[in-house]
Fold DNA ligase (ATP).
Amino acid sequence: MPGDEQLVRIGGRRLRLTNLEKVLYPETGTTKGEVIAYYSRIAPVLLPHVAGRPVTRKRWPEGVGTAEHPEMSFFAKHLEPGAPDWVPRRPIPHSSGTKDYPLVEDLPTLVYLAQVASLELHVPQWRFTAEGERGDADRLVLDLDPGLGVGLAECAEVARWARDILTPMGLDPHPVTSGSKGLQLYCALPPGQTSDRASRLAHELARSIEADHPDLVVSSMKKAIRDGRVLIDWSQNNGSKTTIAPYSLRGRAQPTVATPRTWAELDDPKLRHIRFDEVLDRVDEIGDPLAALDRRTGPSSSDRARAPLHAYIAKRTAGATPEPVPTAPDAESSPSGEWPIFVIQEHHASRLHWDLRLEHDGVLVSWAVPRGIPHSTARNTLAVMTEDHPMEYATFAGTIPAGQYGAGTMTIWDAGHYEPEKWRDDEVIFTAEGRPGGPLGRVRLALIRTGGEGEKSSWLLHRMKTDAAGRPQGEAEPVTATPPASRADPSDPPPPSGSTRVADDLAATPEAPWPPRARDLAPMLSTSATPARARSDAARWGDPAWAEAKWDGIRAIGVWEDRRLRLWARSGNELTARYPEISGVDAGLGDARAIVDGELVALDHGRPSFPLLQTRMNLVREGDIAREAGRTPVHYYLFDVLVAEGKDVTGLPLRQRRAILERLAASSVPALVTPPVFEDVGIALETSTRLRLEGVVVKDPASPYRRGTRSEAWLKVKLTRTQEVVIAGIRPGQGGRAGTFGSLLLGIPDDEGLRYAGRVGTGFTDRELRTLHELLTPLAIDRNPLVGVPAADTRGVQWVRPERVAEVEFGEFTPTGILRHSRWRGLRPDKSPDEVVRES
């Protein structure tokens, strides 16, 4: 064998390396052997950023040449016929035929690609699903490309502007100098985002920055207008396009690398691109600044299929815990019988919870359920997916020692077999039958994923209204904890049923006046509070606490009569005609009159979205409403009841009103939802943060319902900072916004008038820009309606009558009351200017 060839074994794979002394970068004398050595050493930080993504390679078989005489290169999508059969690959259809793209998830594959002179690795902003399909977008990328006369310093300035917009949106940007000319910004996206949606967001962001900084920024791809400016290339979020992978070499005259950087480095006026040898030293010293972007909760999908117990074993030390710990992550178990088994374990850990485990594919797929199995069809409970457990865990009961993962005492609450009805990545439906005389009985349940993927994803556990044959299911008593050393005697007589309690409560309440007057429909209002105050007040109110998610919609009072539901906004305006999926059907609230309180919510992949609700809020024409109702259905999330069976129940404590509401809505249509209640404020805040909800409302469970009153018995804790504002002026647009506007001037009422609160220029869709321009233009006036506007902010402004209320997200208030990093959320037609107050 020639001295320039080696037969090596890497990660259990045999690979022939050839031409190791061949120079691929003539200007620096860098050889193929050095390129392979670089990719071998950088693999631990590079692989997480490309794992699961199809890799398009740019190959230089003869090296890159010099700046004066560059060598030919070509893009390679299809994996070449001579590639080892152990290189993982996934097919993607093209107009010219299906191509097999390599997946780079291990060191042997990475070394093979370097061996065939694949210097550049390019990947899209999505991963394959476990089924081999194209997944949702999981990253947002902005490629900042400097035109003639500008460089990295100007790209860094644009990157900082983008950061000021992205951060208040909850998107944490990470800079990468591309190794070529400019730099990229990456943000991790929440689950459920399509590539089209990511592209629209990136395009909107690019145009917003261009509108504010037209002298330096351009969002159009036209080369003729790019000199002296930085192009924000948003198009690389398209599902069919790729971007240079972090830590990939570049095929430039020098062996530079697409290098993740810190924000402090971007402030350096001598910022430059970095060579591969410098990158290796840098990673040894500071690690990967981009590590958080593609940190995954478990192994890759292919790893998980090969080793389903990988995460379980990694969290436990055999011998230090009494739990069963397999020796191999891919240990297989035979099916347990004709029907798969389940177990529900009561876990007295740092927080009491129940663990639901279902046998599936040789392991116990597991969820932690803080409040246990729902005892009512109207009351869902939160479930959080945990790591798969070995089948031996189905019989485990004991005490996990302090210092070990999951420390605490675990007992078996119930166990048995289940009949699977549906098993998908986002929904599981099954009928479980516990032990004879056990607490579960026979019940049909559904698990519905609401956010995230895999371990730590969030689900709702729902008790179905009917069994698998369509017969109504009965209610059960609430799940309660018992001391771990003993169990309740199943022969003990049950407490009075929920139905009996509700009937007694209704019998003791007065008849409600009918028809309801305007003051009868005035909703009870909450008081803003910090998380610390909410926890303190909840502890003072007594145990258990009461917390509900804040659903980021619009408040609506529902009046139920003659099997139809009419809807009224806080302002007193009727909303009935705008939501036919709720008001145009028999909503299933029974025969008697009722009044309910709730929130109208639009869902974007299971998560409430106020901007999405905007597409419904301002429609008036019947045809437009019907068409948009099909595209963007709205749900009515119920959280209180004022009248039930013709009785005024506002004087009852919230705890009793909730039981009445659950019975009232037990047979309602799917568009009506009674969300779960948390009995731990800390868990409510933690869950809302993880699901990126607007916040929580903490309520005194003993409080009556006080119509039209802002009460300290209801505390609103916002996790996303939002502020209602009054629109007072239009600042003209430039560039791509020349036909609409650049930003809106905002005000918040105070004792001196409408106090200037700054501007908002980002967050608008093209449709919103046009609609708002048409809506605000007729309101034009000559005088300035604001107090305290700096002269510089009044130039060129068209003032408007301060009649329209909107809502913005923001980072903070300045000491002078100006909103920093504000971003448009939408109009609030349900609010009037005199209702707007500054949030604490």
Notes: The two ends are 76 Å apart (CA to CA). Residues 313-463 form one domain. The chain is about 20% helix and 30% strand. The chain has a mean pLDDT of 86.
